Amino acid sequence: MSDALVIGLDIGGTSTRAVLASLAGDRTGTGTAGGGNPTSHGAEAAAAELAKALGAALGSTDPGRVRAGTIGLAGVARLMADPASRAAFDRAWAEVGLTCPYELIGDPLVAYASGTASPDGTVLIAGTGAVAATVRGFALDRVSDGHGWLLGDAGSGFWLGREAVRATLATMDAGRPLGRLSRAVVRTLLPAEAPSAAGPAAGGRADLGALSARDRVDDLVQRVTRRPPVELAGLAPLVIAAHAEGDRTATALLAEAGRLLTESVARIREPGDTTPVVLAGGLLVGDTPLATAVERELRSRWPDATRRRASDGAAAAAWLAARPLLTPTDASALHTRLVPQSANNPLK
Amino acid sequence: MSDALVIGLDIGGTSTRAVLASLAGDRTGTGTAGGGNPTSHGAEAAAAELAKALGAALGSTDPGRVRAGTIGLAGVARLMADPASRAAFDRAWAEVGLTCPYELIGDPLVAYASGTASPDGTVLIAGTGAVAATVRGFALDRVSDGHGWLLGDAGSGFWLGREAVRATLATMDAGRPLGRLSRAVVRTLLPAEAPSAAGPAAGGRADLGALSARDRVDDLVQRVTRRPPVELAGLAPLVIAAHAEGDRTATALLAEAGRLLTESVARIREPGDTTPVVLAGGLLVGDTPLATAVERELRSRWPDATRRRASDGAAAAAWLAARPLLTPTDASALHTRLVPQSANNPLK
């Protein structure tokens, strides 16, 4: 086993990353390629990116040394139900000379394993969307939310962006002065306008003011509704920026998002659970105010649970491939060596 | 003036209604035609329905006797900004022999005037969408919400339907037994399934149960997201029915919708305002539980205001056409004769 290798892949919407590693924890290769999700990119294009990332990670390494592989990606159930996508992935795997089996797993499990080596725990992901899942023996157990922007994703980037616009519209309807967040929303959505800090009701006769305020409200609504709804997630950074500048609406929205995300967790995680919680997704990795809000909520509900941040998904996928080949103690040691832990850990 | 007539039209998405009346309050003709909104049906098709309704209301009456006309419809600002639609309406008006001027007004004002002869007040409309407006001297003053399903319509039929699905998904995620409302939602959206009262977690091993529950959750989400979002409003009757059967989730949703609708009103109506509030739209006319919830909220905020239900929009439009031709006393008397008041009035 001493020269045995494992390979892990993290396939996302905009990039595919591969890590080749020894069972001792040495990274012997890495590779990157473009987005490779078959659902959004098509089976052949996705398989081509997969082969590219695999080839780069392997380099001149003998592919026969690779004993196991794990590929993590979103929408894995759909992929597994689609023979054409499966066949395209199989061809890409063989094309680079790999002969070992590989396992397809969902991205929540990869995110989870990138934060902890514990077989049981919970992962909470908030980016454009939001989903929570419990993990048992490194398999997904129960899932909460992830229902998409129309019916769910409570506390996600989409939710923050939509609520920022809703708060702005409510303030405009009421004819109250716009705060920092609302001014940023108007500036972003209606760049031709130059809203004053005094708000739309300032200046002019009351009835004229009301009419022009309504026109601006309609412009704002039209601007948003003409674009794909999910683009509202692009406004989430405005909420974070306004919060940093002391805007109370932004701070309240982040606190509410933290509560909603924690509620999603509470639907599937028992009250006394002491297993770790891994925070993942663009809005929760790193030192973000939403992560702070979520941690506050998690700490109050599960005071005895460790909270960790997700880190390198491709390395975690490689570790998941290696895990069945090792004793629990060796697997744990490999995790420490192979999967870099976030500077924001430990959070307990 | 004794033989003078007025004509009013209420143009909706599915029907166009016309009322021809004398200044004494006699209905001398009525007409109906198909939906005639230029925005949704096109200018020429809308004008043809307008001409049809006008012609039916006039019958053999000399159109020269008609002194004034009012046309109420949704999206009036867009219509007035579109010369082609205006010209098509002008042609329809002339085609039936009418020579008097006509006024185009928004449907909130027509709904308002169908409930009260008071020149100042508030109208709250909840159907598929939701909007509130204050009225001053029979002109729209301020408007709140009406921002559409993505950004607003808080407390509307869309909102009730979406929240019914969200509550169902949350219950399924948590693996709790489905209540009446959630069972009705599943039955409606997944008619092939036969959900048991015990819920998805009942029977089978826990992990298998969880997996199949997640598949059902995904099916439900897919079913909704493949259709136009506004169709969620079609689930609002399930909330009303489940409330009637004692479902607590449904009752809570209706109470919350009532609060949200009243909040929309509070953004534009002063706390001490004693002018009437007219309730309009499919979810608030008639003896509906949402109307009851809204009335409770309105009564607690504006205890001295009369609450009225909207009634016949075409008759109200005819009355609005007649009003400038009469003394205030005569106008008030005409309203009493011409515009039938809902059996659910007075609500004070």
TrEMBL record, chains A, B:
- Note one Pfam family from the annotation: BcrAD_BadFG
Native source species: Phytohabitans suffuscus
Coiled-coil stretches are none
UniProt keywords, alphabetically: Kinase, Transferase
Q: Which GO terms describe its molecular function?
A: kinase activity
What is the name attached to this protein's record?
N-acetylglucosamine kinase
Q: Which residues form the ATPase BadF/BadG/BcrA/BcrD type domain?
A: 7-304
Respond yes or no to whether keyword Nucleotide-binding is given for this record.
no
